[in-house]
Design a protein that fits this description.
Helices cover 53% and strands 10% of the residues. With 459 residues, the protein is α/β, with parallel strands linked by helices. The protein has a domain at 75-224 and 305-456: 3-Layer(aba) Sandwich (Rossmann fold), CATH 3.40.50.1110. Helix 3 (131-143) packs across helix 13, helix 4 (145-153) packs parallel to helix 13 and helix 5 runs parallel beside helix 10 (318-342).
Length: 459
């Protein structure tokens, strides 16, 4: 009994020892986390810059995708384009330090459309394509990689004001670029040249159309069908649950990114990094689950929807389908060039790199776990479709279409460039891609000196 009666007298000593041990444990955890940070970045955690934290966040980035509740939906049906973003919506992209606002036609841009040339010293560049093209536009507006290269290497452009006009959105695929181009030209929009970045959506998303018996020329079913179901009040409980999970994951990612920026200790930074990586994986898994539900629903008998979506006219085998995807893609590119030539404008076409198309790139374990998911819904489309597209490139070149194959530009890049299991790049990847586009355009213009005469009269 004496031992138990003396115990209260020892409580202060016990608490003191426990606190000391907890302090040592916290110190050891902090030192361990700092050591891990050093092993990866060769720098003390406490001396890191804000840009380095932003780059780590960019590697966990979240592509802009539609959600389908009235409060969170980012996209709106459009009678000509298929869909656009909600006007006046502020967008904070993963690799950017600024906020972009959606303009009057539903594109993230600094200007409303049509943009009227304000003085003869302006060089107007339009960018068309899907989310990778949209990200390129935003990266270019903020970092001016193309603009600086043009001014440095094309004397006729040295003193010009380069204006970037984005007409690209996540999920766009041909012939959406073609239709948008001709629509905006009909409104009087001028271009000095247009950059079209595509290839991935034309095969990965068109393959989803093929699987659901929707015409290949229709916009992506992944983007269009949820909007159709909202318009027709036709969302089932499984879809609502999947959507709720996706929305929750997006919020977890945003919260995790904010907390990463606020981390003062290496240990809390490491914990938040791991939890945010888990949220990113859950986000991708829930997106795949949503696609699975959509595919099962598409096999049900056709219902009477308020939005008309054209079904495939005939059943074809998979090889024929991919050949038709390539034919549609190539015809759209030809017509974009033709439309621009009628306006005395130049056209440049780039095929974007993607992790599911095998090249000489070696993926680290860290990047592979982030960027590649076995049996991803996009994987078959890319692996079957890219070779068919690339077979068509030589024919387009013979028709004097300036088309550039960028699929191998990451082969000699050692650092991580992909931010998700779809197709998007982090800051390092966007920089490499922007440099490739800038150098390709400059090389083409220097090989065709007569094309630069258009700018000489403006000096």
């Amino acid at each position: 009994m004496k031992r138990w009666t003396e115990l209260p007298k020892k409580w202060p000593e016990i608490v003191k020892i426990a606190l000391i041990n907890l302090c040592f444990l916290a110190i050891f955890i902090e030192l361990g986390a700092a050591a891990l940070y050093w092993s990866k970045h060769k720098q003390l955690f406490y001396t890191r810059s804000e840009d380095q934290t932003n780059e780590a966040i960019a590697q966990l980035g979240l592509p802009i995708n539609p959600t389908t509740t009235d409060e969170t939906i980012l996209e709106r049906l459009h009678p000509f384009f298929g869909y656009v973003l909600k006007p006046n919506l502020p967008l904070n992209l993963e690799f950017s330090t600024r906020v972009f606002n959606v303009n009057n036609l539903g594109f993230p841009a600094d200007y409303d459309y049509p943009f009227i040339r304000q003085n003869p010293n302006q060089v107007i560049i339009g960018v068309f394509g899907g989310s990778v093209a949209s990200n390129f536009s935003m990266y270019e507006i903020e970092n001016q990689v193309l603009a600086k290269t043009l001014k440095e290497k094309i004397p006729e452009l040295a003193n010009k004001e380069i204006i970037i006009l984005p007409f690209a959105l996540g999920g766009y695929k041909q012939p959406q670029q073609l239709l948008i181009l001709n629509y905006i030209l009909s409104l009087g929009q001028e271009f000095d040249f247009v950059i079209n970045i595509d290839g991935f959506n034309e095969v990965a998303l068109s393959n989803l159309n093929y699987q659901e018996n929707i015409a290949l020329s229709m916009p992506s079913v992944q983007h269009l069908l949820p909007l159709r179901d909202v318009a027709s009040n036709n969302l089932g409980p499984d879809e609502l649950i999947a959507i709720a999970n996706i929305v929750e994951n997006r919020e977890q990612l945003r919260t995790g990114q904010e907390k990463l920026q606020q981390s003062q200790f290496a240990s809390t930074y490491l914990f938040r990094l791991v939890s945010t990586q888990a949220a990113a994986r859950n986000y991708q898994e829930n997106l795949m689950e949503f696609e699975k539900i959509r595919g099962q629903k598409a096999q049900n008998p056709q219902q009477d929807f308020i939005l008309r979506i054209e079904n495939a006219r005939e059943a074809v085998d998979v090889d024929t389908a991919f050949n038709r995807m390539a034919e549609l893609w190539a015809n759209s590119s030809r017509l974009m060039k033709e439309s621009l030539e009628n306006q005395n404008s130049l056209y440049f076409h780039f095929i974007q790199p993607n992790q599911y198309y095998p090249t000489g790139r070696s993926f680290s374990e860290a990047e592979r776990s982030l960027a590649i998911i076995d049996n991803h819904p996009y994987q078959v489309g890319v692996q079957k479709g890219y070779p068919v597209l690339l077979e068509t490139v030589e024919q387009l070149k013979r028709e004097n279409i300036p088309i550039f194959n960028a699929t191998e530009i990451f082969d000699n890049v050692n650092e991580i460039v992909y931010i998700d299991s779809c197709c998007h790049y982090n800051q390092a990847g966007n920089q490499v891609f922007a440099n490739y586009i800038a150098d390709s355009i400059v090389g083409f213009l220097n090989q065709n000196a007569e094309l630069k005469n258009r700018w000489k009269s403006l000096d």
